[in-house]
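Ticket closed. Logging final result for 25S rRNA (uridine-N(3))-methyltransferase BMT5-like domain-containing protein.
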Amino acid sequence: MLGATLLHGVDATKITIYPHLQCRKFHRIIYNFPHAGFHQKEDHPHLISMHRDLVCGFFLNARCMLWVNGEIHLSHKITPPFSSWRIEDLALNCSLFLVECADFQIRDYPRYSNKRGSGSRCDEPFPLGECRTFKFKLSHDATTHRTSENIFTFNDVGMTTLEHNMIRNECFWMFGGYLKHVEDTFGSTSYDVGSSVSEALSLGFDAYMGAGQGRPSSGYIAILEELHHLSILRSQRLRQMLVENSLTLLENLCM
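Final structure:
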């Protein structure tokens, strides 16, 4: 009646490749009480690690589906052992920053009932206790890199497909440090370009594969294609800087 679409069986760590969600953008993405299942006691380190992997996989996917000023809302218990998940740290590692942390109000979700979700008591509610709703936005540094004279955004690269728009934040998350290092060392005769590029690509592949189980290698190839276009833009900017510096040097010599 209100135009909503209900989908079942969606893996929260692979939502960007789900057929009905590909190329979609949202103003709000909400995940109430993520849980990896009852495999051990809640304070068991392995289960906490599974929970953290789930949340991290969700963040990495959800951030690619946000509009520019969109938000990711994640509701979570904040008492031990749930506080060991360190939600804010996971978000920060995924280039998301906290804009608000509010008390979870179940009345904000009419007809919503919290469920255990798995196990023999899967349809039963669980005690909410002290909970918060963490609200995140994309980190500015994840989509824009500032220099003293110019601003580079991924729109400058000329990407036109929605698929590349979805993946662009992950590209900069992996290679933003490498691109900044290139700019910081521009003109240095001791800079080994070959070794630097090889190391960056290797680290990028490890980061891509480590962000979620079963990720297709084709996804990393798409990221490399975007990195290629971004590198061309950066090279043009560095050449421009070289020309400007040379002209400035000549002007100073002629004075």
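The beta strands are 26-32, 66-77, 96-103, 131-138, 144-146, 151-153. No further action required.
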